[in-house]
Amino acid sequence: MISYLQADNIARRIGDHLLFENISLNVNKDDKIALIAVNGAGKSSLLDILAGRENPDGGSLSIKRDLRIAYLQQLPLLNESNRIIDELFCTDSELVRVIREYEKCLLSGTPEMLQVMIQSMDDHKAWDYEVAVKQILFKLKLTDLNAVIGTLSGGQKKRVALAKVLVEDSDLIILDEPTNHLDLDMIEWLEEYLIKSKKTLMMVTHDRYFLDRVCNVILELADNELYRYEGNYEYFLEKKQSREYSAKMNTEKAQNLLKTELEWMRRMPKARRHKAKSRIESFYDLKEKAANRPDEKSININVNISRMGSKILELKNICKAYGDKVVINDFTYLFNRFEKAGLIGRNGTGKTTLLNIITGLTEPDTGTVDRGETIVFGYYMQQGIEFDEDMTVIDAVKNIAERVMVSDGTVLSITQFMNYFLFPPEKQYTLIRKLSGGEKRRLYLLTVLMKNPNFLILDEPTNDLDILTLNVLEEYLAGFMGCVIVVSHDRYFMDKVVDHIFENKGDGVIKDFPGNYTQLRDKQQETERRVPAGKASKISDSDFAADNSGKKEKKQGLTFKEKREFEALSIEIQSLESEKNLIENEMSQGLLNPEDLYSKSKRHGEIMKILDDKEMRWLELSEK
């Protein structure tokens, strides 16, 4: 077993706050490791240290000589002035360096230098690299390769950074929340990509299906100790339960022994106390063990909800477009009491627009929204809210309310209520700017729930929340006596919470499916297996897609003009590939004179650029 990286007794502090200390771990070749911990425990800080971006405050880190590490940070740093394609080639990778040198040589190099670079391209198998890069970009929905980084959204920037990490020539990939800002199709593709990858992997993720299917080692950072589990997420849950049960039994045993020892301490004559020094020392050790409560940190969300009348929400013939782009087309739906719906669809199809229309933040172009008089929305927005970073946590919450009523009618002070959300008194007076990203999201969730809503709308609530918070939020939503709409890329979360799915198919078409996400995917895959291969690109979903108004509408595919273009592209790409392979074969034989070599190399560069454009267009049409 080859050790890539070893950390011994490392520690990290932020000011006076200790994140962790005396943490030791190994990363071995072929490990696929997931790191699990509550928000604020220092997951991102630990990854920064392992990636060599930060130095530990104590302990040591040993990294294998010449180990190539690619690191996706939670907030990646990109060159805002670069184009997407430039950013991907802005790396220290040997493979990318060879490609850059080859391109320079094509413009100004001598025939002798060109021959050397052609051989280097062969040695590094670099001819197909750009095609592989563009295929990854296409899967991550980054089709405009000339777009400037500074003009992209936060989600697009994260996907550019992810693509950059995936294409790097690395031995170890470190990923901090890689599924954030990916839609469900992208996550499933990334899942398969990492499963098949031969690279060693370490990541932080809250996506439990992703974690379960990709990882073979789980590291849990809890109570300033690091526990290693050789198995997937399901195995981790079993062993964690056993460990916590054992710890609880040991604590109870220590408490019982402590009672006996306490009686002995009180009965023992003072004159003889010097003879029992070792027993007295054991007493204090026992007292410390008895005080250990491993299950003390838990969230118990039982917020009260406002009374809900019989009339909830009715959407009738809703339409919305931005210019020529239709995002909602003739959507009608009547919500019932206690309904829990999921809303899915690719990025940019209009999911957030629908939520904004429901809450009144956006007006539809046509159609009506009839909201019940008793409805109180609690809207957890994807972008969150802007807290004053120089305020303390408790002051930010007090700006909303001084007291909160919980489900049993008890009125709690803000200090008491914040304890439910793992904000103990010492944390409540922390400045917001010192909170981790996950702690800020938990604080935002607290501010939404404390308003006692009866209709919860959660737009990507799983981003940056730790698994403990997600588990408790799932339990809360399962028993929530109101309506819920959830937009999430977390399939596990959706499966546990929702009872039906609104699927935004694009072009404004929204379908209603009676079941959770896994049931929907199973149905789609069953349909794909039943439809003959020749028909699959033309018709799917049992040949028709039914919109929620009950009408039957044939699913859109390629237009006649696009079909002709698609067929022509297949022939053109094949012809260009053949010409490219022929040129590469001629150049690699070393029989060309300098003039022919230069001419062939120039033509090879032209073919690669033409192929890039045509393959990208072919991929776009093939998705239809």
Rounded to an integer in angstroms, the radius of gyration calculated over CA atoms is: 29 Å
CATH architecture of the largest domain: 3-Layer(aba) Sandwich
Distance between the termini: 46 Å
Query: In CATH's first tier, which class of the largest domain applies?
Result: Alpha Beta
CATH superfamily of the largest domain: P-loop containing nucleotide triphosphate hydrolases
Task: Estimate percent helicity.
Answer: 40-55%
Annotation keywords:
624 residues; alpha/beta; Rossmann fold; 3 domains; six-stranded mixed beta sheet; 22 strands; globular
Helices and strands, with pairings:
Elements lengths: L2 E12 L2 E12 L3 E5 L6 H8 L7 E6 L5 E4 L11 H5 L5 H15 L2 H13 L5 H11 L14 H14 L4 E5 L7 H13 L3 E5 L3 H7 L2 E6 L2 E5 L3 H35 L9 H15 L21 E10 L2 E11 L4 E6 L5 H9 L6 E6 L5 E4 L12 H6 L4 E3 L5 E3 H6 L5 H4 L8 H13 L5 E5 L7 H12 L4 E5 L3 H7 L2 E7 L2 E5 L3 H14 L2 H4 L8 E2 L5 E2 L6 H29 L5 H30 L1
Parallel strand pairs: 3-7, 3-8, 5-6, 6-7, 12-18, 12-19, 14-17, 17-18
Antiparallel strand pairs: 1-2, 1-4, 8-9, 10-11, 10-13, 15-16, 19-20, 21-22
Helix pairs in contact: 3-4, 4-21, 5-6, 5-21, 9-10, 20-21
